[in-house]
Amino acid sequence: MSSRPAAFLDRDGTIIHDASYVRDPDDVVLLDGAADAIKELNARGIAVIVVTNQSGIARGWLTRADYELVHARLQALLAEEGARLDAAYVCPHHPDISGPCDCRKPGLALYRQAIAEHGLDAAQSLFTGDRWRDVAPAKDLGGLGILLDVASTPAEDHKRARVEGALTAGSLREAVDRYLAMLPARSGGQ
Fold first, then answer.
1. What does residue 9 show for φ and ψ, rounded to 5 degrees?
2. Active site residue 10
3. HSE-CB of 182 using CA atoms within 13 angstroms
4. Beta partners for 81?
5. Which one, of 45, 39, 34, lies nearest residue 6 by Cα?
6. From CA 56, how far away is CA 113, in angstroms rounded?
7. Rg (alpha carbons) of the chain, rounded to whole number
8. Are the CB atoms for 62 and 21 separated by under 8 Å?
9. Entry pTM
10. Residue 189, Cβ neighbours under 10 Å: how many?
């Protein structure tokens, strides 16, 4: 089978500081350990895929061009640290403005698109971020969900993780370390 595992990562509050609707590339600040975690995934041949809700686009607070400039800055900062993203998928919608969509997390459309476009094995993949919606797709797609327990994680998401018995980690670095430690057992020793 040619499919490979992936790490599906949220962006804001997971890789970069959550500055609330980032539209200026100068506001992009990598979180401690994020580049190292991504670099480790790269070294292991695990696809690194960002899936992000950016409702600020629908709200008119930033444009798609603003998003692209911020994304380019993120890629440049990661490259300076020897890390890279394989792809990024963005939902620009907000249900109250643009109506419901299948791509807004925890919807699965962007994950399924990435899986198809990159030949990924969802069941061997990591789903992580600072919100429950970032890890919920793991339940439907069969991967490992790890909720980040960080300042931007809402209290109700902490509670839901406890109720659902979900794994948590204090940073992206910790989540990646836990995932990598479990990967051989999950993938039959690959």
1. -115, 140
2. yes
3. 17
4. none
5. 45
6. 22
7. 16
8. yes
9. 0.94
10. 7
Q: Which two tokens stand for residue 54?
A: 């950016």
Let me know: does 40 contact 81? Beta carbons within 8 Å: no
CB atoms within 10 A of CB 51: 27
Per-residue pLDDT in tens (0 to 9) along the chain, 190 residues: 468 999 999 999 999 999 888 999 999 999 999 999 999 999 999 999 999 999 999 999 999 999 999 999 999 999 999 999 999 999 999 999 999 999 999 999 999 999 999 999 999 999 999 999 999 999 999 999 999 999 999 999 999 988 988 899 999 999 999 999 998 654 443 3
Q: Taking the C-alpha atoms of 111, 115, 121 and 125 in order, what is their torsion angle to the nearest 10 degrees?
A: -30
Nearest to 145 by CA among 163, 161, 158: 161
- Tell me which of 12, 18, 66, 157 is the catalytic residue: 12
CATH assignment of 6-154+166-186, given 3.40.1440.10, 3.10.310.10, 3.40.50.1000, 3.90.1150.10?
3.40.50.1000
Residue of 79, 14, 15, 82 whose CA lies nearest to 43:
82
What are the domain boundaries of the chain? 6-154+166-186
How far apart CA 67 and CA 69 sit, in angstroms, is 5
